[in-house]
Amino acid sequence: MSRAVGDPQTAAAGTRADRAVPGRRGRPRSAAADSAIIEAVLRLIEEGAAIGELSMERIAREAGVGKATVYRRWPGKHALMLDVMRSLDTPPPVLEGASVRDDLVALLEFLRRRGLAKRNSALLRTVVSHVQAHPELWAEYHETVVRARNEALLRVLRRGMASGEIRSDRDAETLADLFVGPMLARAILHEWRELPEGLAADIVDTVLEGVRPGP
C-alpha cells in the first residue's frame, strides 16, 4: 500500500513547495528526500495517524532524515500537508479545444481513471477526511486543486454556450454538476458500481442531448 519513493507526483509536489519560498539559499534540493518525506506522511496516515498527531519531528524520523531537512523544504506542517494532498492528485488533461464534446469527454475520462486508481482514491479520501477537520487546509486544497479542475470544466461549458452548442440560459456551474455528478457518484459514493470504458462519452452525450439549444 505504500507509494514508491521517487514517484514523479511526490517529487513534483516537493518542487512546488520549493517555489513557495522565494529567495531560498543553500544546497540544491534532493528529489529523493522530498519524496521520502511525503511518502513518510502518507505511510503514517495509512497506519492510522491523524494530522493533529503528526509532528515535524515524527515525520522526519519516519522519513529517515533530519528535522532541518524537512524545515528547509516546508516552513511548517500546514505547507507540507498541502503538498502531500497535491501528490495524490494529477493535473487535468490538456484539452484540444476543437470540440466541446471531446473536451468534456476528456475531463470525465480523467475522473473515471482516478476512480479506477483504487489506492490513490482511497488514500486521498482518507487524507481529505482528516483535512476537513482543519478549515484552513481544506480551503487551500480547494483553491489549489479542486478549483483548477472546476475552472477547466467551466471554460469548456462557457465555450459551448458561446458557440451555440450548449444552451446559454442556464447557470454554467449547475451544468457542470450535471456532467460530473454521475461520474463522481460512481467513483466515490457507489464504489461497487463499475467504471467501464466509454462511460465518460455516455454521460457527456446523454447530458448534451438535454442541454442543447432547441430548434
Chain-wise SSE layout:
Elements lengths: L7 H12 L11 H16 L9 H8 L3 H7 L3 H11 L12 H17 L1 H14 L3 H29 L8 H18 L9 H13 L4
Short précis:
This protein has helices spanning 8-19, 31-46, 56-63, 67-73, 77-87, 100-116, 118-131, 135-163, 172-189, 199-211. It has 215 residues and is mainly α.
Structural write-up:
The protein has 215 residues and is mainly α. It folds into 2 domains: 29-87, Orthogonal Bundle (Tetracycline Repressor, domain 2), CATH 1.10.357; 90-211, Orthogonal Bundle (Tetracycline Repressor, domain 2). It is 67% helix and 0% strand. The chain is built from 10 helices and no strands. The protein has helices at residues 8-19, 31-46, 56-63, 67-73, 77-87, 100-116, 118-131, 135-163, 172-189, 199-211. Helix 1 (8-19) packs antiparallel against helix 5 and helix 2 (31-46) crosses helix 5 (77-87). The longest helix has 29 residues, at 135-163. The N and C termini lie far apart (54 Å).
